[in-house]
Design brief:
This protein has 165 residues and is of the alpha/beta class. It has seven helices and five strands; from the N terminus they run βαβαβαβαβααα. The chain has helices at residues 12-22, 36-42, 57-64, 77-80, 96-106, 111-125, 130-154, and strands at 3-6, 27-31, 46-48, 69-72, 87-90.
């Protein structure tokens, strides 16, 4: 098994030093990349041992690319990962992540199917085009405000829809 760290966060140097001190050979520090699909072409699961989290983009991206997450049950992680179905959930306490990692290793032959289910699940929850959805929501709000204004001014019979492209 090999673990790759992606990103340029403030903890990178400390993790590199710790790996060297412990003589850990099966890790690499890949740095920042914009090629998300490339990451998941060569990696089988996301490990995200957060103590606090919102809805992590890394988890959404991994699931969109058909990869399960091995994550702590904080923030939005437990909302999108179903334990042992679309990934593995650990509680954010000592040794729980070890158990989740062991479970993932024992079930490694199921990771491909879990990733397939993860991709389906995340697409049910997260839009493929959130910017467009947000724009349409704003247009609907503007429509309602214009209609309310026109109703105040001219009565309920007036209609002035905003055209969507």
């Amino acid at each position: 098994m090999h673990v790759s760290f992606f990103g340029q966060g403030i903890n990178r140097e400390g993790l590199e030093s710790l790996a060297a001190k412990l003589g850990v050979q099966n890790v690499s520090f890949e740095g920042h990349t914009r090629d998300v699909i490339g990451i998941w072409r060569n990696h089988h699961a996301l490990v995200l041992p957060s103590r606090a989290e919102g809805m992590p983009l890394a988890l959404v991206e991994a699931m969109m690319c058909g990869r399960p997450g091995i994550v702590t049950s904080v923030g939005g992680n437990a909302e999108v990962v179903e334990d042992r179905v679309t990934g593995f959930l650990a509680t954010p306490v000592e040794d729980s992540l070890d158990v989740a990692l062991e479970d993932a290793w024992a079930g490694r032959h199921e990771l491909r199917e879990m990733g397939r289910l993860a991709a389906i699940r995340i697409r049910e929850l997260v839009s493929s085009n959130p910017a467009q959805d947000f724009a349409y929501t704003l247009l609907e709000i503007v429509d309602e405000l214009v209609e309310a204004r026109l109703d105040e001014r001219y009565g309920a019979a007036s209609v002035c829809p905003i055209r969507r492209v």
